[in-house]
Amino acid sequence: MHEDLETPPKSGALPAPERLSSAADPLSPRETRERVGSWPRPWPWAPRATHLLLGLILIAALWLRLFGPSGHAFDWGSGQFVHPDENFVGGSLVGNLRYPSSPFDLFNSDSGWNPTVAAASGQPAVNGHPAHDGAGFNYGSLPLYLIKIFMSVLSWLAGHLSFLANWQSAGPILYGRILSGIFDTITVWLVFLLGRRLASERAGLFAATLACFAVLSMQLAHYTTVDSFLGTFATGTVLASVTLLQEGRRRDYAYAGIWLAAALATKVSAAPLVATVVLA
User: Fold this and answer.
1) Do 167 and 155 contact (CB within 8 A), yes or no?
2) What distance in Å separates the CA atoms of residue 95 and residue 171, rounded to the nearest whole number?
3) How far apart are CA 268 and CA 211, in angstroms?
4) Which long-range contacts (CB under 8 A, 24 or more apart) does 151-160 make?
5) Sign of the C-alpha dihedral, residues 188, 189, 191, 196?
6) What secondary structure letter does DSSP report for 225?
7) Cα Rg for the chain, rounded, in angstroms?
8) What angle do CA 61, 67, 69 make, to 5 degrees?
9) Average pLDDT over residues 53-81
């Protein structure tokens, strides 16, 4: 007589479609976001507003690191490079690096591409071999090579573009200051990506804003030193580790390894980041 009526569920039980996944069948981070949605809720006019705000933050970050409210550009100091690390990195190392004449020179310790040979430039040869100065390894080699390559590319462009003609006679320190500011701006972008992955786009924008106006970051980005490069690679390592923990794809392992290797090739103080990748 009452066959058309549904049998009520037992007390404490939920209907099958509404039953949550058990511990034996956990949801992935992506499925969790799809199930419960992001919190806080995104703006109704996102993502266009997110892109616009992020673009403004990055423009402000680059301007603060290359120019700043004082109006002085990256050539501030009137040619007086008084920062000891900057003078050594830009003047003694990058300026004396020589490109390898063949791929085999990359494995030749006497090559001019070796920072220890560049640091000993001008010293007499020893037993028929170029002099070596261990001070060339006071810093990681990767930032030195990046500045050298950036200097060569910009110098080549200066020979073909008239509005860049002055850069043909610029010193390595000025090239390094520009690249340092660019890398620190990349760090601001990576901070946004990290905040978005851990929380939401709103949190990412807030974190990027804090990174944009971080006084110490702005100060370090004004010098041709390795600190801004290390900040970029360290942030990238943390971001890749979080992505690896959440997604676990093969490419995530590769990204984490590349970021970590770049950080270690910049400064040995990046060694604790190994634990971040291992734990992920």
Assistant:
1) yes
2) 8
3) 23
4) 151/94, 151/175
5) positive
6) S
7) 26
8) 85
9) 81
**Bond before 40 cis per omega within 30 degrees:** yes
Closest by CA position to 211, among listed 243, 234, 185, 183: 185
Contacts 24+ apart (CB under 8 A), 133-142: 135/88, 136/93, 138/88, 139/85, 139/89, 139/93, 139/115, 139/226, 139/266, 139/267, 140/226, 140/264, 140/265, 140/266, 140/267, 140/268, 141/115, 141/265, 142/229, 142/262, 142/265, 142/266
- In the chain, at which residue ranges do the beta strands (DSSP E only) sit? none
Residues contacting residue 70 through CB under 8 Å, at least 6 positions apart: 76
Q: Which of 25-39, 98-112, 224-238 has the highest mean pLDDT?
A: 224-238
C-alpha–C-alpha distance, residues 222 and 30, integer Å:
40
CA distance 50 to 2: 56
- pLDDT higher than threshold 80 for residue 112: yes
Amino acid at 75: D
User: Which residues make beta-bridge pairs with 126?
Assistant: 129
- 37-41, 119-123, 141-145, range with the lowest pLDDT: 37-41
